[in-house]
Write a structure and sequence with these properties.
Elements (H helix, E strand, L loop, with lengths): L2 E3 L20 H14 L4 E5 L5 E7 L7 E2 L3 E9 L8 H15 L4 E7 L9 H6 L3 E5 L4 E7 L8 E2 L13 E5 L5 H16 L3 E5 L3 H4 L9 E5 L2 E4 L5 H8 L1
Parallel strand pairs: 5-6, 10-11
Antiparallel strand pairs: 1-2, 2-3, 3-5, 4-9, 6-8, 7-8, 10-12, 12-13
Helix pairs in contact: 1-4
Length: 247
């Protein structure tokens, strides 16, 4: 398998794996705009040269869009291998490339979000354990911060206090999200319209900077849905799934 690193020069013409390939699609446009601004902040997007879902995306933890304290670490936004690419060792290839790059840049280790049991859009805890990662912190909603230190004396990352007990004072359904996930550009408006038609109070709060995301009331900032202040899920909703949730 050959891999390609996304740059400012090739971003526009490359398929970004996790959304459809048409650059005119709002999902692709929003993700690419978000990526473009992050490349100057040290973000790396490494993908298969073949079309499909096979990529890793990581960034220096100081610039991560999550409320974590992990100075000197590299934070993995997403490691995604699916479909026909599964079972060929490509996850290992991508992770090993991230480890080598991070060590070359003098990082203390890697960190990533997961949970005790596999959750949608989060790293698989079984895979992380197999690769030597360990849990270093956990929020009250079960979202865990995992790390892979490069030395025994490396200080473990931790969550900021703002997200340890995920909660919002906003009434009704409240969604915190970012453009890091391309699907939000399509499905957040759909859920907003579905809630309106159902007569349900719904508010979408888009986090538009690393500063906002690093002070969010949730460890997962790509998509975090609350109801009357209490955290519900990080799983993206379409109209049918949201209506099922309402019932």
């Amino acid at each position: 398998m050959d891999y390609l690193r996304i740059t400012k020069e090739n971003l526009e013409g490359e398929h970004i794996c996790c959304a459809i390939s048409n650059n005119k699609d709002v999902q692709v446009a929003s993700k690419k705009a978000w990526l473009l601004d992050r490349l100057d902040e040290g973000l790396v997007f490494l993908k298969s040269t073949e079309r499909g879902k096979c990529f890793i995306e990581y960034i220096p933890a100081e610039n991560a869009w999550n409320p974590i304290c992990a100075d000197g670490y590299m934070y993995i936004n997403c490691l995604w291998v699916s479909g026909s690419f599964k079972g060929h060792g490509y996850s290992n290839d991508l992770l090993n490339a991230c480890i080598a790059d991070s060590k070359e840049k003098g990082k203390k280790g890697l960190c990533i979000l997961s949970a005790a049991k596999k959750k949608p859009f989060l790293a698989d805890p079984k895979y992380l354990t197999h690769k030597g990662f360990a849990v270093c912190d956990e929020a009250d909603n079960g979202i865990q911060l995992w790390y892979l230190p490069f030395s025994a004396d490396a200080k473990a990352p931790e969550f900021k206090e703002c997200c340890r007990s995920p909660h919002t004072d906003e009434p009704g359904y409240v969604l915190y999200y970012t453009n890091q996930c391309p699907f939000n550009a399509k499905y957040v408006p759909i859920v907003e319209q579905t809630a309106k038609e159902a007569g349900v109070q719904f508010k979408a709060i888009r986090l538009e900077s690393a500063g906002q995301a690093q002070n969010a009331p949730t460890p997962v900032t790509t998509y975090a849905l609350f109801y009357n202040g209490e955290y519900l899920t990080n799983e993206q909703m379409n109209a049918a799934r949201f209506l099922k949730l309402l019932k």
